[in-house]
Design a protein that fits this description.
Length: about 375
């Protein structure tokens, strides 16, 4: 997408969200408080900076107020982790499913495992997620590999997203009970011993699956990956069976990634995810000759425009190769967020073929991790 195409997309989305027939109750009310007319004065992406920051308000408003009147679909509500206060809520009908289809294609580019078990014709009867299309439906008795997810479920979108991916790729989805808010609370209150016991509890749950199921794919946070590798039995099972690993949720240093890929689990394909409930998933793209970073995240544009900006002047993008703060804009018919500053720093990587948004590398907490608790998630 070119900058001109992005500007046209912004105009279309703003018209949708601020027109009385299609806009949401939230944005139609908000329009009265703005110092400008969005319908006539927003001409492109740069004009989104005229809007106030609103994500904080989404912690407290009725979630249904975010649903546009023009969307005739069933919506779900998803929550952020609530690290800095009450969770921020979003609504979603189909946009995040489209994002998962994109991630599924990118996983194929990485050579991530997919089931090769026999499937029935696409018109065969049987339960399936209509939003994902028919997908593979296995014959009774065929061997199906398993996907083990060690991450949040509940109100957090990532658990549902991984379940959708597992279904798309013909795998049985397994998960464990994990409450990231409780773990973060333990660390904030200085109860590190309890947090370690909780991590051991999560490893025990994972072992119950690894011992008995044909686990070929694993999605987990870096701290839980480390805990599994430090447990002799869990490590042996991972090394023997798992062919693909997705890491997400907390930062992972280049050296930590090298250790996992080259020394601890060299037979597995590693793919990183950066994202959250607001942004969606920025999946690691395959490495290219000349890359300065082993892991480069490709954000899900144009539905989410991600840029790396100067923390002191968020309207200014940093130069490629420089570090800055992550800024996102959500631009789709289901949800409009003009701009939001994430609490993450990243190195800007120029996106080949488009100057409209950035790829990201070396993502980490903006504060270095001192003020924000990551825990196991």
């Amino acid at each position: 997408m070119t900058p001109a195409e992005l500007d046209a997309h912004v105009r279309e989305i703003v018209r949708w969200h601020f027109s009385p027939d299609t806009g949401s109750p939230y944005w139609l009310r908000k329009a009265a408080d703005l110092s400008f007319d969005p319908l006539s004065e927003v001409r492109g992406f740069d004009d989104l900076a005229r809007f106030p920051a609103v994500a904080e308000e989404w912690r407290y408003i009725p979630a249904g107020d975010l649903i546009p009147r023009g969307c005739n679909a069933a919506f779900d509500v998803w929550e952020t982790g609530g690290t800095t206060g009450p969770p921020t809520r979003i609504v979603d009908a189909e946009e995040r499913t489209r994002g998962i289809l994109r991630v599924d294609r990118m996983l194929d580019e990485h050579g991530f495992p997919r089931s090769d078990a026999a499937t029935l014709p696409v018109d065969s009867p049987g339960p399936r997620d209509p939003a994902l299309g028919p997908g593979p439906i296995h014959r009774a008795g065929t061997s199906r590999p398993a996907w083990l997810h060690l991450g949040p479920t509940g109100p957090h979108l990532v658990g549902t997203n991984v379940a959708r991916l597992a279904r798309l790729r013909g795998m049985l989805y397994h998960t464990v009970d994990l409450d990231p808010r409780w773990v973060k609370r333990l660390y904030r209150e200085g109860r590190a011993d309890e947090a370690r016991r909780y991590t051991a509890h999560l490893v025990e749950q994972a072992l119950a699956v690894l011992r008995t199921q044909q686990v070929e794919a694993l999605s987990a946070t870096p701290p839980l990956l480390q805990a599994l590798c430090e447990h002799p039995e869990a490590y042996d099972l991972l090394a023997a069976r798992v062919k693909g690993i997705i890491w997400f949720g907390t930062s992972l240093s280049p050296e930590g990634l090298r250790l996992l890929e080259d020394e601890l689990l060299p037979e597995a394909r590693f793919v990183g995810w950066y994202g959250n409930t607001l942004m969606g998933i920025a999946c690691q793209r395959p490495r290219r000759e000349g890359d300065a970073h082993n892991c480069v995240f490709s954000p899900p544009g144009p539905a989410a425009v991600v840029r790396v900006v100067d923390p002191q002047n968020p309207a200014r993008r940093v130069a490629p190769g420089e570090a800055g703060q992550v800024r996102i804009s959500l631009l789709n018919r289901e949800l409009f967020l003009p701009w939001h500053l994430e609490r993450d720093r990243a190195v800007r990587v120029a996106w080949p073929g488009s100057a409209a948004w950035d790829e990201l590398a070396e993502v980490a907490p903006l504060d270095g991790g001192g003020a924000r608790v990551e825990g196991v998630y």
